[in-house]
Design goal:
The strands form three sheets. The protein has a three-stranded antiparallel β-sheet, covered by helices on one side. Helices cover about 35% and strands about 30% of the residues. By secondary structure, it is an alpha+beta fold. It folds into two domains: about 35 residues; about 120 residues, no CATH class. The chain is elongated, with a radius of gyration of 22 Å. The chain starts with a helix and ends in a 15-residue tail after the last strand.
Length: about 170
């Protein structure tokens, strides 16, 4: 009888462990959904600077990330349940991640005023192509802060490419 209670207790602990991990991932997803609220606030309250795309460049910024870290999220496909169950936290399992760094220079009268940069998890080819389709990139600066707060609006990277533009 005692061994039955022990097995039930161990199964309950394992189930709680996996539930906690799932709820942490769910919390991260909720925070990313809250990003739209942040973006609306920034657009409404911060100073907008339009930077011509000719003053922006995309740099290849690929890296490797340990797949076993809790902060790792799959890039293109969901992790299978089997992979999730067999993660070994003590083992290093490096995965290539395609990243690009946007550098936008704010130039007035031929003089560089300030450089802004942001790193995103998108391949450089796609990032450069989508940047070339645009006329300008919006950068929002918080003038009410003592810190060097700025936000580069790269929401156009999430938009679908309209192929009708190329058929003309």
């Amino acid at each position: 009888m005692t061994w039955t209670i022990n097995i039930i207790g161990i199964l309950l602990l394992v189930a709680l462990f996996y539930y906690r991990k799932y709820s942490e991932r769910k919390q991260r997803n909720l925070q990313s959904e809250g990003g739209t609220i942040f973006l609306e606030n920034v657009r409404a309250n911060w100073e907008k600077i339009e930077i011509d795309t000719s003053n922006c460049s995309v740099i290849k910024y690929d890296t490797k990330i340990d797949k076993n870290l809790p902060s790792y999220e799959p890039q293109h496909k969901e992790e299978s349940f089997f992979d999730w169950m067999n993660k070994d936290r003590n083992k290093v399992n490096l995965v290539d991640v395609a990243r690009s760094k946007f550098v936008c220079n704010y130039v007035q009268n031929g003089e560089l005023i300030k450089s802004f940069s942001k790193t995103v998890d998108i391949d450089i080819t796609v990032a450069q192509f989508k940047l070339n389709l645009r006329d300008c990139v919006n950068v929002y600066v918080n003038n009410h802060s003592m810190l060097d707060d700025y936000f580069i609006d790269l929401s156009f990277l999430q938009e679908e490419i309209d192929l009708q533009k190329f058929n003309k």
